[in-house]
Amino acid sequence: MIIETFVLTPFQQNTRVIACEGTRKAICIDPGEWSDELVDFIKNNDLKLQGIALTHGHLDHVGGTTDLSRAFPDAEIILHKHDEDLYYGLPRQPLFLGIQPHQMKAMGFDYAPPPQLTRNWEHGEIYEVGNLRFSVRHCPGHTRGHVVLAEENERSVFTGDCLFSGTIGRTDLPGGDYEQLIASISENILSLGDDFTVYCGHGPETTIGREKESNPFLNINRE
Ligand SMILES: [Fe+2]
Fold first, then answer.
1. Angle (CA) 120 126 131, round 5°
2. Which residues crowd ion ligand 1, with CB under 5 Å?
3. Ligand 1 centroid distance, CA of 23 (Å)
4. What is the C-alpha separation between 35 and 39, in angstroms, rounded?
5. pLDDT value of residue 97
6. Which of 49, 66, 111, 222 is at a distance of 20 to 30 A from 85, taking alpha carbons?
């Protein structure tokens, strides 16, 4: 599995290209904004971008969808249905962050309406990218329609804004729910296995074992 990370947007979001080495089929998980480097990486490595795989609908994870979709028009765009309101409401999302309409352009947050989704994630589906098989797990709590993608053979999980190294996603934005997030992490991420590498939507990678041991929000071994 090829994994290339691009740290984008003022929120330092991890946009990733994941590809099957054998077939060169690839996905982009969460294009935060336009990036020449990202597009060049796909083209220069002879990758075939089959999909734009969105973990959730927040602007720092979907803001580059319009441009990436223009560059690779055959790539499908997939998001859970419970985050469609966030996705199609992208031009209004800066308001949640206290950015007023007259400030949006100057601050780089003037988004066009994003392209139509191709389809929605279904909890439990297996999404194939060449020889890679991602199990799609609905993990509400940070947003209502957040999903994580787990590749069991590669012992890797892409957790978006559910779980980070040493912390968890914020739950104070619309659709957030702290108890639900903790339950989602416990049921759908920690259950994968301690040896899984966790690729987070912001910040460094970690492992499930390390988070079980030391993440103060999870508290697994201290009851
Ligand atoms: Fe988010």
1. 125
2. 58, 161
3. 31
4. 7
5. 84
6. 49
Strands 197-200 and 156-160: parallel
- 58 Cα to the center of ligand 1, angstroms: 5
pTM above 0.90, yes or no: yes
Residues 6+ apart with CB under 8 A from 146: 55, 56, 80, 83, 138, 139, 140, 160, 161, 162, 169, 184
Three-class secondary structure of residue 50 per DSSP? strand
Each residue of 1-24: pLDDT tens digit?
A: 999 999 999 999 999 999 999 999
Average pLDDT of the residues in 148-172: 98
Phi and psi angles of residue 210, each rounded to the nearest 5 degrees, phi first: -65, -40
In b/e form, how buried is each residue of 99-134, taking b as 16+ CB within 10 angstroms?
beeeebeeeebebeebeebeeebeeeeebebbebeb
